[in-house]
């Protein structure tokens, strides 16, 4: 699948796939599994490492010398982009939405240690920051550099196909374990990971429900964004897959007060994963997705015996930026 596309092998793959034998019975699920993309290896891991394999492959094919991307101050994607830039000898420029903090911690600190240049824009919306990405890329080009722009979360065709390939990896692991996953619960922010999973399931002819738990946007916006990303990807790779109308599920019940704001429910979910499985979730993404999984189970929306997967997309460094809220 997508074997002819430019790709830099960065991640430690395949990532672990195993049963959650303690957590599952605690929340009423006897067949609960986890896919550990928090263990992709690059700079404390995360789902963006898979995407950056294809993104950086394209960048190097175009002889880029600089990666430019956008995100929040505690962006996991920016941290992983900074790390791969260091690994590949590329310059890295991060355009961050938010106020420059008095002290650096978590993802921001790691990005600086990897040598990234950071610019802060406290008054920009995410849409405005995306527009700024274009103008900064043009400026860097005028200065004689060869920048490669990456949208937030690497939500672009190169990033999408990474999770189509990841679904093939999961399907192989599940078959080896003698199980057939019926449902996947995953955090959905910029929606690229969920779009890739849906694309992969289509290519594999796999009838699996993929539930994206929104971390910031309403369901209608999320569904539209996933479909748009899938359309863009099928247009970019017409030889790999035909256009189709995907079934998309985005659950916005656990957004809480907004992006990056830790709710008491998400905090409890983080603690439950930690105390039952020794697995660390993050406050921005996987904590909310875990809350969604737990609430669905306790409400009886998931049959007790139904093979269900929680896809851990990483984000561990952000825990240290939320130390006070998590105590």
Architecture overview:
Helix content is 43%, strand content 16%. It is globular. It has two domains: 17-46 and 156-326, Rossmann fold (3-Layer(aba) Sandwich); 48-154, Rossmann fold. It contains twelve helices and ten strands. The strands form two sheets. A six-stranded mixed sheet has the order 1-2-10-7-8-9. Strands 5-4-3-6 form a four-stranded parallel sheet, sandwiched between helices. It is an alpha/beta fold.
Distance between the termini: 44 Å
The pLDDT mean sits at 97
Tell me the major beta sheet. Answer: 6 strands, mixed
Strand order of the largest sheet: 1-2-10-7-8-9
In the predicted model, the low-confidence regions spanning at least 5 consecutive residues are none
Number of helices: 12
The whole-angstrom Rg is: 19 Å
**CATH level-two architecture of the largest domain:** 3-Layer(aba) Sandwich
The helical percent reads: 40-55%
Task: Please write the CATH class name of the largest domain.
Answer: Alpha Beta
Quickly give the structural class.
Answer: alpha/beta
Number of strands: 10
What's the number of domains?
2
Q: According to CATH, what is the topology of the largest domain? A: Rossmann fold
Query: What spatial form do the alpha-carbon principal axes imply?
Result: globular
Element string (H = helix, E = strand)? EHEHEHEHEHEHEHEHEHHEHH
Beta percentage is 15-25%
